[in-house]
Amino acid sequence: xxxxxxxxxxxxxxxxxxxxxxxxxxxxxxxxxxxxxxxxxxxxxx
Amino acid sequence: xxxxxxxxxxxxxxxxxxxxxxxxxxxxxxxxxxxxxxxxxxxxxxxxxxxxxxxxxxxxxxxxxxxxxxxxxxxxxxxxxxxxxxxxxxxxxxxxxxxxxxxxxxxxxxxxxxxxxxxxxxxxxxxxxxxxxxxxxxxxxxxxxxxxxxxxxxxxxxxxxxxxxxxxxxxxxxxxxxxxxxxxxxxxxxxxxxxxxxxxxxxxxxxxxxxxxxxxxxxxxxxxxxxxxxxxxxxxxxxxxxxxxxxxxxxxxxxxxxxxx
Amino acid sequence: xxxxxxxxxxxxxxxxxxxxxxxxxxxxxxxxxxxxxxxxxxxxxxxxxxxxxxxxxxxxxxxxxxxxxxxxxxxxxxxxxxxxxxxxxxxxxxxxxxxxxxxxxxxxxxxxxxxxxxxxxxxxxxxxxxxxxxxxxxxxxxxxxxxxxxxxxxxxxxxxxxxx
Lengths: 46, 261, 164
Description:
The complex is a heterotrimer.
Chain A: H1 4-45
Chain B: H1 10-19, H2 24-56, H3 70-96, H4 100-131, H5 140-159, H6 165-179, H7 182-192, H8 212-252
Helix pairs in contact in B: 2-8, 3-4, 3-6, 3-8, 4-5, 4-8, 5-6, 5-7
Chain C: H1 2-28, H2 30-33, H3 39-44, E1 53-59, E2 65-69, E3 72-80, E4 85-91, E5 103-110, E6 115-124, H4 132-141, H5 157-161
Parallel strand pairs in C: 4-6
Antiparallel strand pairs in C: 1-3, 1-5, 2-3, 3-4, 5-6
């Protein structure tokens, strides 16, 4: 009566999904920030 | 005023700063300061809670170690409902006050809420197989949470359904408000009807049927995941604010093509 | 300001109408929303023989019997809701949590002899979580027998374990 695979998969799926979501969100944030900086710089030069 | 034109129209900037504390610019600056702290404490509480739940807390007398799935399943379930309350609140302030931040927030809360609800359903299913003997049953609790998941998916779809985003946000806000009736059904389904799912463990009206050695890691996990949820929403809303600024820059500077950046 | 109040009124009245509609629909379909029926309901209503029903209740203590039919275990037990009991026969492997005193849901149908032939048995655990050590000491003290009911409230555990 070992339920270890069930427990580990529940923990694993949760941790992986949430850290994946975290990673994607931060990537999107950094991309947007970089893009905006380029635009602002361009605006000052113009 | 329906749009959040806080960058391109100076007069309206002033209007929002004076009249509405939660305007996008203020929100951005405020959460930018708070973000590292939220992230740090979210990670800290989640790590403590999960290690406590997985290794230190006692096994249940009849469920054995499988009861440890509760430490993630219950926070996910609570966050799924709380997230929807936030979504409905955003929808409400978008429809009534045309709040500039509300639509952005709703658009960013949707996917996080859907993920959390999916995790709640998946971990519940993984818990149900060894305990109940089945992955899924169509009882009132499970079905109403599945409906909540579809409400989240519908909200995401509506946000992207129209060429003109404002139209989509309005439709999505209406869906968020209508769907709010699913929340009491989820909460009380285990009392109103016979279900395979067990009744609520935590209760405000009578002594809860949980002991401290099991409740403590659960509370840790709940605090951690809640902070993580807040942090995730903050970073996503900030991204949305930046993207809105980019969009406006590109409209105001037609000479600048997208290829240049 | 006036348009805002107007919008507020429209939305609130829409929500109110929706709430009434949902309450009416749910109360109308309340009988179909229950996942299982208890033995006293099934005995009072005459069910057409052979129709698939879900029977829920507690496994009666000392009613559990195991038989064997060509390697497949056959189990018979009684399910009760405190008012009536129905005899259940199930051929197959039971879930781990199945025991006397446990709440179960059996899916199957009643035959002519009023015996419930189950095709699937699910275990339904309660909302009380109890560490193993406490359950063991409660059972050793004779304060609680899992075969005869749900576990006591956590606020009473200390009191029950300590010798008086």
